[in-house]
Design a protein that fits this description.
Layout lengths: L15 E4 L5 H11 L3 E6 L13 E2 L3 E2 H5 L4 E5 L5 H12 L3 E4 L5 H4 L4 H7 L4 E6 L14 H7 L2 H4 L14 H24 L4 E5 H8 L1 H10 L16 E6 L2 E6 L3 H11 L3 H5 L6 H6 L1 H12 L4 H10 L4 E3 L3 H5 L2 H6 L2 E6 L3 E6 L4 E2 L2 E2 L13 H16 L4
Parallel strand pairs: 1-2, 1-6, 2-5, 6-7, 7-8
Antiparallel strand pairs: 3-4, 9-10, 10-11, 12-13, 14-15
Helix pairs in contact: 1-8, 8-9
C-alpha cells in the first residue's frame, strides 16, 4: 500500500466548511470532511479557544492531546461571536461556505444571526448541520448534551462491563464520536442531493438519538426480552468461546466462530477432541447454554501455554486470534506503522509531535494529514485575506 500523498484531487477538494462547533461531536464531523479534502475553517474564541484546548496533556502553548485528536487538517480563525465585528465576519464566511456545522444550545445560533433560516436566505445552497443533546421539538430540547450523561440515559452503561458489575461507561466518548460520524454521513448525503436540487438542507443530529443507535443488537434483544440482556464483558453473548483468555504470560483474544473451528481448537490447539464430541459442546447453541461448564475448562487448558506458542497454535488451526496490547504498545507497533496510521510532524511550539492519520484509504493510498492541528487563531489573517478576495471576485463586473 502506498502511504504517500496522492496526485489525484481529494474527494471533497474545493468544498468550504465553517466549523462553529466545539468539544468533540461537531469537531469530529468537521475533521472527517477535512480528511476527505474539504477546506475546514474552525472558529474559536480569541482567548478561550475550543474548550478542549484545556483538556488532556498540554502540547505547546494552547494545544492539547484532546484538541489535537479532533482537529487535524483544519485552519483556525479567532473570532469573538459576542462582538458585532466578529459576528459579521462569521456571517460573511458562512455566505461563502458549502457547509456550516454548529452545536450551540438550540436557538443560540438563531439569536446570533447564524441560524439556518438566516444563513440559507443569503446562501440557499448551504448544507447546515446542527448538533444538540436531545431532539428538537421535544420537552428536553433545551437540555445541554454531555456524552457521559447520554451514555447513562440511553442504556449504554447498562450493557457495558461484566455481569454483576454496576453501570460502566465506554473508555472513550463514544456517543460524541458516533454523533460526529452520523452527522458527516448526513452532510455528504445532503451535498449529493444538492447537485440535483441546487438547494441545501438543515441536518439535525442529537447525542441521545445516536446513543440509542449504539445499543444496536443489544437494544433489539432488550426489546424482545422486555428487560435487560445479561452482560458478558469481554465475552460474546451468543458465541462460545469468544473473548479474552489468559496464557501463562499475558492475555490474548480468540474468536471460535463456528463448529468447525471449535473442532480444530479442541483437536489441534488444546488436544481435547473429546470436547467437540460432547453433546453439551458440539454446537455453538449448546456451548452457549453450557458456557459455565466449558469456559473454566478452556481457561485452564490455555493457561498452560505462553502467548507465543498459543497464538502459533491458534493461527495454525486457522482460528482468529491476537495478542492484547497496551494502548501505547499498539500505537507504536509495527502493524500501526505499516498501515501508515501515525503521522509525525514538526510543531513550531513543541517540536516533534504525532497525530493519528485519517482512516480512509482510496485507490490504495491513505489520505494524508495535510495540516497539523492548528494553533489558536493561527490562520486568522490568511482566512480574512482569502475571504476578501472571494468577495471582490464575486462583486467584480462580469464581461
Amino acid at each position: 500500500m502506498n502511504h504517500g500523498a496522492s496526485a489525484a484531487p481529494l474527494p471533497l477538494a474545493g468544498l468550504r466548511v465553517l466549523d462553529l462547533s466545539r468539544v468533540l461531536a461537531g469537531p469530529m464531523c468537521a475533521m472527517a470532511l477535512a480528511d476527505l479534502g474539504a477546506d475546514v475553517i474552525k472558529v474559536e474564541h480569541p482567548e478561550r479557544g475550543d474548550d478542549t484546548r484545556d483538556w488532556g496533556v498540554r502540547i505547546g502553548v494552547r494545544n492539547t492531546s484532546y484538541f489535537n485528536s479532533a482537529n487535524r487538517n483544519k485552519r483556525s480563525i479567532a473570532l469573538d461571536l459576542q462582538d458585532e465585528a466578529g459576528l459579521a465576519i462569521a456571517r460573511r464566511l458562512a455566505a461563502r461556505s458549502d457547509v456550516v456545522i454548529e452545536n450551540f444550545k438550540p436557538g443560540g445560533a438563531d439569536k446570533l444571526g447564524l441560524g439556518y433560516a438566516a444563513l440559507s436566505e443569503t446562501n440557499p445552497r448551504l448544507v447546515y448541520c446542527s448538533i444538540s443533546g436531545y431532539a428538537r421539538g421535544t420537552a428536553e430540547a433545551q437540555r445541554p448534551g454531555y456524552d457521559l450523561v447520554v451514555q447513562g440515559e440511553a442504556g449504554i452503561m447498562a450493557m457495558n462491563g461484566e455481569e454483576g458489575q454496576g453501570p460502566l461507561k465506554f473508555g472513550v466518548a463514544a456517543v460524541d464520536m458516533f454523533t460526529g460520524m452520523y452527522a458527516g454521513q448526513a452532510i455528504l448525503a445532503a451535498l449529493y442531493e444538492r447537485h440535483r436540487t441546487g438547494r441545501g438542507r438543515h441536518v439535525q443530529l442529537a447525542l441521545y438519538d445516536s446513543g440509542v443507535m449504539i445499543t444496536s443488537y443489544y437494544g433489539m434483544e432488550a426489546l424482545l426480552r422486555a428487560g435487560d440482556p445479561p452482560k458478558f464483558g469481554n465475552a460474546h453473548p451468543a458465541i462460545v468461546p469468544y473473548g479474552v483468555f489468559d496464557a501463562s504470560d499475558g492475555p490474548i483474544v480468540m474468536t471460535v466462530g463456528n463448529n468447525g473451528q471449535f473442532a480444530r481448537f479442541c483437536r489441534d490447539v488444546v488436544g481435547r477432541p473429546d470436547w467437540a464430541a460432547d453433546e453439551r459442546f458440539a454446537t455453538n447453541t449448546a456451548r452457549s447454554v453450557h458456557r459455565a461448564v466449558l469456559l473454566p475448562l478452556i481457561r485452564q487448558a490455555l493457561g498452560a501455554f505462553n502467548r507465543r506458542e498459543l497464538l502459533a497454535r491458534l493461527e495454525q488451526a486457522q482460528i482468529p486470534c491476537g495478542k492484547v496490547l497496551g494502548m501505547h504498545e499498539a500505537l507504536t507497533s509495527e502493524r500501526t506503522g505499516a498501515a501508515g496510521l501515525l503521522h509525525r510532524y514538526e510543531d513550531t511550539e513543541s517540536g516533534t509531535q504525532s497525530v493519528l492519520a485519517p482512516p480512509y484509504v482510496m485507490d490504495g493510498q491513505r489520505l494524508q494529514v495535510r495540516r497539523q492541528p492548528p494553533h489558536l487563531g493561527e490562520h486568522t489573517d490568511e482566512i480574512l485575506r482569502e475571504l476578501q478576495s472571494l468577495e471582490n471576485a464575486a462583486a467584480a463586473p462580469r464581461p
